[in-house]
Amino acid sequence: MSRASIHLVRHGEVFNPDGVLYGRLPEFHLSDLGQEMARRVAAYFQEQQNSGAKLVQVVASPLTRAQETAAPIAAALGLEIVTDERILEAENRFEGLSGVKSRLRNPKYWPLLRNPIKPSWGEPYAAQVQRVMAAVEDARIRALELGGEDSEAVLVSHQLPIWVTRLAAEGRRLWHDPRNRECTLTSVTTLDFDGGQLTGVRYAEPSADLLPGAANIPGA
């Protein structure tokens, strides 16, 4: 069997003074704090590499905030960024709106809330898991091709796709309270594999000390 690890990294804080649910909208850049978070997670992986970890690939969502988070990671590891649309943010019909919580009191939005299990306001949770796990599997195979046994890849994505993928990996239900997601800014959710078999899930927060006071509006 061939062991490999795939690290799912959420992007850093976004400059978003108007509190827009930015979803897949272009040109939402990291804030100054977000850039510091990106440097922090890059140092986290560089330390692992210096300790012998075989980090052989960096993959990122095409969205600006993910690319800007991936850039210092790739530079620290001496790698190029591979872009993969399968780890893109989830679709959301509230995209582009600010003050989403207050808007939910408006009856015109209530039809979007008819099925929170799916969810009815955006891309089904199961569809997100399917596309992210397909990207994870390709990254696992490619990591083994590049580095052999115990190779690792970093995939920079977004909170909701990462979280529902973790829920699926742990055999939990996909519908959830967004306030209870354990997927903070630049957190690292690691999926460990032996061959094609998932053997474990790990979680780390390299930017934990930077989180108090950070804006944390979900993209979806």
TrEMBL record:
SUPFAM superfamilies hit by this protein: Phosphoglycerate mutase-like (SSF53254)
CDD domains documented for this protein: HP_PGM_like
Domain of life the protein comes from: Bacteria
Transmembrane segments: none
Name of this chain's protein: Histidine phosphatase family protein
Species annotation: Arthrobacter gallicola
UniProt xrefs under Pfam families: His_Phos_1
InterPro entries, per the entry: His_Pase_superF_clade-1, His_PPase_superfam, PGM_Phosphatase
Gene3D superfamilies according to UniProt: Phosphoglycerate mutase-like
PANTHER family, sorted: BROAD-SPECIFICITY PHOSPHATASE YOR283W-RELATED, PHOSPHOGLYCERATE MUTASE
Signal peptide: none
